[in-house]
Amino acid sequence: MDMNLQKYLAFVKTVEYGSFTKAAEVLNYSQSGISRMISDLESECNVALLERSKNGVTLTSEGEKILPYAKKLCDEFERFTGFVGEITDMRTGLIRIGVFSSVATHWVPNIINEFKNDFPGIEYELVIGDYREIEEMIINGRVDCGFLELPVKSNLETIFLEKDELVAVLPKNHPLAGCEKFPAEELTKEPFILLERNYKSEISVFFEENGIVPDVKYTTWDDYAIMSMVEKGLGIAILPRLILQRANYDIVIKSLDIPAYRKIGIALRSVNGVSPVVKNFLQYLQYR
Asked: What is the pLDDT of residues 12-24, one digit of tens each?
């Protein structure tokens, strides 16, 4: 890679990992080499990009302004080198995928394990986030594609993959633990633990669509925390079934008497704009 581009990559990775040491490990340079490249870049730009301290590095105000352009430059160069490599060998390249926790745990390892049988030379970068973070990463070019709940609000191209059932999660000794399907109206009668971050989740949408007003006592985005809280009898919850696969908690899982699902798909800026390797991956996902 051209040394000037390497300086920008050193800057981007140092910000991403918060230290020269970690950036050096990722880029296979010495710590002093990374520090020197960023110092050279600061000299060329005639501004300080990073604040150094014992706790790591933070962006200066000038660094915050320059970072998006540096990221875009590195992303475009990475795409360029990927295309060049794929012209000569369609079986090599890098796929950057945005994933949320349940997909990262229960889908992606199996998908990659099968995909690598046909494409053993492919490398993968998995970037964890929530729906909004993944959507932003796709829009900004941080990842090639990402798993999301459908539909998406932004102008992204999407491919539907699967429906994931929303189910009631109860303590083992709950009076309705033996029912065939959990009555949705019962969700209003005892403490409820809501899986939600700083925006409306598919569970809140389900409540609104069915006129259900649960007694929300706890709200968290950590699905494993919810399982633990339900196990301790602090309340009941609704979770996507995918999250509950191989869950090692003493809880009861019941379908709702009002069927509810989240639609999971893969999203990207443009199918025609991705590398051939990513296109192969997308086709594989559709017919897996």
From this structure: 999 998 988 988 8
CB contact set of 58 (below 8 Å; sequence gap of 6+)? 50, 51
Spatial separation of the C-alpha atoms in residues 10 and 59, rounded to whole Å: 14
Mean pLDDT of the chain: 89
Q: What is the pLDDT of residues 54-74, one digit of tens each?
A: 888 899 999 999 999 999 998
3-state secondary structure of 200: coil
Q: What is the DSSP string of 135-195?
A: HHHHHHTSSSEEEEEESPSSS-EEEEEEEEEEEEEEETT-TTTT-SSB-GGGGGSSEEEEE
Q: pLDDT tens for residues 107-144?
A: 899 888 888 887 888 899 999 999 999 999 999 999 99
Quick one: which of 90, 78, 158 has its CA closest to 118? 90
Q: How many CB atoms sit inside 10 A of residue 112's CB?
A: 16
Chain-centroid distance of CA 86 in Å reads 26
**Tokens read off for 113:** 């394990």
Rg of the chain over Cα atoms, rounded to whole angstroms, equals 23
Calpha distance 85→190 (Å, rounded): 58
**Strands 261-268 and 157-171: what pairing?**
antiparallel
The helix-helix angle for 3-17 and 31-45 (nearest 10°) equals 110
Tally of helices (H runs) and strands (E runs) in the chain: 10, 11
Does the reported pTM lie above 0.85? Answer: no
129 Cβ contact list (under 8 Å, min separation 6): 98, 99, 100, 137, 146
